[in-house]
Design a protein that fits this description.
The protein is an alpha/beta fold. The chain is built from 10 helices and 12 strands. The chain has an 8-stranded parallel β-barrel, surrounded by 6 helices. Helix 1 packs parallel to helix 2 (65-73). The radius of gyration is 16 Å and the shape is globular. 47% of the residues are buried. It comes from Campylobacter sputorum subsp. sputorum. The active site is at 13, 132. GO terms for molecular function: imidazoleglycerol-phosphate synthase activity; lyase activity.
Amino acid sequence: MNKFAKRIIPCLDVNDGRVVKGINFINLIDAGDPVEVAKIYNDAGADELCFLDISASHQSRNTIVDVVAKVAKNLFIPLSVGGGIRKIDDINRLLDVGCDKVSINSAAIHNPNLIDEAAKKFGSQCIVIAVDAKEVSANKYNVFINGGRIDAGKDVYEWAKEVQTRGAGEILLTSMDKDGTKSGYDITLTKNVSLSLNIPVIASGGAGNMEHIKDILNAGADAALAASIFHFGEIKIPQLKKYLQENGIEVRK
């Protein structure tokens, strides 16, 4: 498998034990049972699966480990889990039930040393830093936390470089402005972050068709993450991979 091959990653946004999808982080609608949805993606040729417990940080509780365990049992592809991870013990618990990577957002902002500690203990390849970015003025993006509810007051580009230095193995970069709109990813944001880093960037927020995914991978993203277009059957992963290959983008078989 070529390490430079681009990855396709469906995302399960989980709220109260159900997969949901919204627009700009609100107006959530039900998209199914996480275990069933995960099985479908595993069989459809997804390269990884991202599981985000989207209300854990806001509700100040831990990730729903029992649901993660059930999902992990049914997967043969890497599973990345985020939401409500605050300390080393939380990461331990998730890795113990079968997840491969953890995605940390709010806790990394509150305690950046957690990144260093986690990378040292578990290896950088396990540590993904989720960055929810919102444009606050012309081409100025700030990091938001607590499910997009609070402006952390940090510049996205500076924070991305810092988390790389601290040992993060990957960044999951979500454009809040584009999330759920199906109007295409934020090319400028993703390209600038990707160019400034040596670690992989997963682009998230805005996928509406196969061309959007092609464009963001060509713009420098190492992986494209999407939710609603996959959940509601608008795009099938095998057809997407075929389309990308036909357009000169190497994808994992």
